[in-house]
Design brief:
The structure is a homodimer. By secondary structure, chain A is of the alpha/beta class. Chain A is built from five helices and six strands, in the order E-H-E-H-E-H-E-E-E-H-H. The first copy, chain A, has helices at residues 13-23, 48-63, 97-112, 178-184, 186-199, and strands at 5-8, 29-32, 67-76, 119-129, 138-148, 164-166. In chain A, helix 4 crosses helix 5. The longest helix of chain A is centred in the N-terminal third of the chain and has 16 residues, at 48-63. The model of chain A has no long low-confidence stretch (mean pLDDT 93). Chains A and B meet through helix 2 of A and helix 2 of B.
Amino acid sequence: MPVRSIVLASGNPGKKAEIEQLLAPFGTRVVTQVELGITEAEEPHHSFLENALAKARHASLATRLPALADDSGICVDALDGAPGVHSAYYAGREGGRAERDARNNARLLAELAGADSRAAHYECVLVLMRGPGDVRPLVASAQWRGSIAREPRGTGGFGYDPLFLPEGMAQTAAELAPAEKNRISHRGQALAKLLELLHGEP
Amino acid sequence: MPVRSIVLASGNPGKKAEIEQLLAPFGTRVVTQVELGITEAEEPHHSFLENALAKARHASLATRLPALADDSGICVDALDGAPGVHSAYYAGREGGRAERDARNNARLLAELAGADSRAAHYECVLVLMRGPGDVRPLVASAQWRGSIAREPRGTGGFGYDPLFLPEGMAQTAAELAPAEKNRISHRGQALAKLLELLHGEP
């Protein structure tokens, strides 16, 4: 893999941990833009793809290094795809990540009270810019299908993992071992596709 | 095809003519944003994909209609991929389209004087936003490989067509009949892929 050291266009430690583990076999060092003192990009919040591109471009221009950006969220059928691109701040911007996660999960449960369907999917779009002059950024995306549990369970992962029941499984995503989640998750699958694109290049 | 009427996020009459012809079998009406009085989007000019997304988002937000955007250009090997995303304004912003095209072609010939390789490809990225709230815009891209002729020939098409010799052909793109160009061009191929994506949707 030609990319030896990349900036992760995120300050989310949960994303960093997952991506570090996924890239470990390739000897790629992951540094977050927050660790480099770069502020986060404005997100247009229209689509995962536009957000991921904006984040990767911002980090790559600011650091002059290869940049990897992830935009992801959970889309719930009965809520017309909400919270979607607003997943991180579904219940407001106040507080730290753990607080926001707990509030987001509580709001999702409340919104789904009485809903006929609890079907949902996680979605992840990854963008790799191999440098600030990259005119052909690599894009990969994946979905992870499942449903929303009646109450949160588990302490692994982050975000909506305690409520997300992957299709065909009895455990929530937060009850899976990290390596198991990475193998089947939206982020793990998107990264596998991205690595395929990267290896397929001349 | 569910999209009956779309805004083309462009004021380029050459692009409009090609896309209209390509979409005619589906009964889709094409209106340009210029015809609707919408100004063109700022292009970040980093990559075809970011430009096309910015154009489609701008047109869709301004018109509240489905929007199709094309970003395209010619990438020349001996010039490290230039003019690339700068194809339209390679020789400056002054003058009308025909003047700019002629100046761009002249500059490209000058830059390539004495070059070992004249290999080049046209590239096109299309983005379809089915409305201002589309969180999953469709993206398709294609390349058209060929080389740069020693002098311009032909009056069809637009842009660098008089200089572009498609691989395996003796005619320039500007000497092809419109239907023939559309069948094999970067734009025609990208639109075929986009229609496949659209038909593959639930």
